Amino acid sequence: TEMLKVNDINVYYGNIHALKGISLEVHEDEIVALIGANGAGKSTTLKTISGLMHSKTGSITLMNEDISHADAYKLVSKGLAHVPEGRRVFLHMTVLENLEMGAYTQPGYTKDGIADVFERFPRLKHRKNQIAGTLSGGEQQMLAMGRALMSKPKIIVMDEPSMGLSPIFVSNIFDIIQTIRETGTTVLLVEQNAKKALSIADRAYVLETGKISLSGKASDLINDASVKKAYLGE
To answer: How would you classify residue 115: left for phi > 0, otherwise alpha for psi between -120 and 50, otherwise beta?
Structure first.
């Protein structure tokens, strides 16, 4: 089943044409990766899907509903959660308060949701009363993911979840992304670590200067000569 469909979106920053006719789709229970160099338009694509930016053309549909002009906050209650680049946790609030903020569209789920997040991220349980700004980068990333899961999303879009993390945390985060999908949440992933992203994704799209240059099964792209050369350092 089609969870998300992006059709011919064009996005501008002033006079700069950032996204040039991008189309992609994400099916239910898939992990789909977006890879590309810095400045290729990956984050802009996610922000446009999440309602933080808007396209001049085309359409975006979520579970067959047109969300092209929907406000970002309304999309949360429609089942779309965004884990932003740089984590963006509420630094002066505790871990628990951050999670409660994530559940504002699902007030009846707060208690069960917190239990679920703590089962997924045991480190957060041990730090539940700690101020988020004092957590390590990896713990803040876990908190950002946990906070997004508190809204019971059908699809979660993640922007550079492994950025700036130690190798052990990177492996941990990718394991968690796989379990998120296994428990019924679809994932659209923007990730600089192309090798890791392609190793867990079902399908992938390659962005170059605001356009999709390649797409296909992740297992095919990981063996593609041009992808190896440009993104896998081979």
So the answer is: alpha
Instruction: Please give the Cα distance from 142 to 1 (Å, whole number).
Output: 29
Query: DSSP string of the chain?
Result: -EEEEEEEEEEEETTEEEEEEEEEEEETT-EEEEEE-TTSSHHHHHHHHTTSS--SSSEEEETTEE-TT--HHHHHHTTEEEE-TT----TTSBHHHHHHHHTTT-GGGHHHHHHHHHHH-HHHHHTTTSBGGGS-HHHHHHHHHHHHHTT--SEEEEE-TTTT--HHHHHHHHHHHHHHHHTT-EEEEE-S-HHHHHHH-SEEEEEETTEEEEEEEHHHHTT-HHHHHHHS--
Rounded CA separation 104/134 (Å): 24
Cα–Cα dist 18/39, whole Å: 9
Quick one: 199 exposed, middle or buried, by C-beta within 10 A (0-12, 13-18, 19+)? middle
Percent of the chain with pLDDT over 70: 99
The model carries a pTM of 0.92
pLDDT tens column, 143-165:
999 999 998 899 999 999 888 88
Q: List pLDDT tens digits, range 164-178.
A: 888 888 888 899 899
